[in-house]
# Entry
Amino acid sequence: MNSRVIAGFDVDAVRREFPILDQQVNGQPLVYLDNAATMQKPAAVIDAIAHYYRHDNANVHRGAHALASRATEAMEQARERVAEFLGGVAREEILWTRGTTESINLVANSWGRANLQPGDEILLTTMEHHANIVPWQMVAAATGARIRVLPITDDGALDLEALPGLLGERTRLVAITQMSNVLGTVNPVAEIARMAHAARALVLIDGAQAINHFEVDVRALGADFYALSGHKLFGPTGIGVLYGRRELLDAMPPWQGGGQMIERVSFDGTTYAQVPWKFEAGTPHIAGAIGLGAAVAWLQNLDRDAAERHERELLARLDTGLDAIAGVRRIGTAAARAAIASFVVDGVHPTDVGVLLDQQGVAVRAGHHCTMPLMARFGIPGTVRASLAPYNTLAEVDRLLVALDKALGFLR
Ligand code: PMP
# Structure
C-alpha cells in the first residue's frame, strides 16, 4: 500500500520526525493507534527538553544569574507561543498547569468556590471525561450548586434540542468538551457558547482532544476558559494550559499558596502576584513548558489543513473497514466526527480485543476511557478505541483491520 496517496501531505516525512514509531512490538512493526490517550513526540520536542537540561537548567524568576534568566526567558517565550497559538490572546491569560485535569480543577476550586451559591447550576454533557465531571461534583457538594446534564442522541451527538430547556437563569457555567475522547464527536461549541452567554452563563471548553486536530481561536469559540494537555498536543506529560479571560482571572482568588504566587508575605497578611503567577504556586514544570512550546512550534510548521484531510481519509477507511467486519458495532456515528473510532464486538470483552491486537503489534485502548456515564448511556462496559494522528498511514489502518479480523477468528 502506498502511504503517500493523500495529495499534499507527505506522511513518510512526518513519520521520520517521530523516532519512537520506528520499532517492532511483538515481532511486528509498531502500529500506534492510541493517540487519544497520548500522542508521540517529534524529535524537535525531545531535543528542546534535552537542550534545556543540558544547557539552561535553573529555577525561574528568582535567580540573578545567567542560567536563571535563560530558563525564565525560555519558559515565558513558550507561554507567548501558546498565547499566539490559541488565537493571539494575552500571555497573562495563559496559565501553566499539569494538564487538562488540573486546569479544570483550578477553575472549579477558584472560580467555583468563590462564585457558586446554593441552587446555582453547572451544565455538563453526557459525553464528558471524568476530568470535566468530578471536579464539578466536588465543588457542587461544597457550595450547594447543582449539576445538570445535556443528553446525547443515539449516534453520539449532543441533543441540542434539549439545550434551551436546560439553560436558565440559574445556570452559571456550561462546561463542555470540544471533541469526545470516545466517540470522536466534534461539538458545535461556538453555537453552544452563544446560547450560554445569552443566558449569562460562563463557558469552559475542554480542548484536550480537539486541540491537536483543529486550529483553535479561543475567543472566536466564545470560551471564557479553555483547558488543554501538553501530552495530547505532541508535547510532554505533566504540563498543560488553562486559558482564562483576563478579567475573570483577575477577579478569581488563588487556589494554591506558596512561592512565586505572592507579592509580599508577612504574618500579618499576604498579598498576591498578578496573573498568571497568582495561579502558579511553586516551581513550575519548566522543561515541560519549554517542550510544549516546541510542540506548538512544530505544529505551526505543519500544513494543518493537509493533516486534517489526511486524518479524515484515514478515519473514512477505518469506519468502512470496521463496518465490514461481522459482529463489530461502532459506537459514535455522528455526522461531525474526527480521528477516533470506537467499537464493541458481540460477545467479546473490549480488553480481550486490545490484548490480541497488541500481540500483533497494534496499540489501541480498551475500557471505559474515563467516561463511565457515557458507557452507561450506551449500556456497555467499555469500547475498543482506535485514535489517529497525522503520522498514521492507510497501511496502518489496514494492519488494524486485518489484525482485528484475525483476533475475532481466534476468539470465536
Ligand atoms: N478531557 C478529555 C476529553 C480527555 O480526553 C482527557 C484525557 N483522556 C482529559 C480531559 C484529561 O486529560 P489529562 O489526563 O491530560 O489531564
Q: What stands out?
A: The CA atoms of residues 309 and 332 lie 20 Å apart. The chain has two domains: 11-41+304-411, 48-300. The chain is about 40% helix and 15% strand. The longest strand covers residues 171-177.
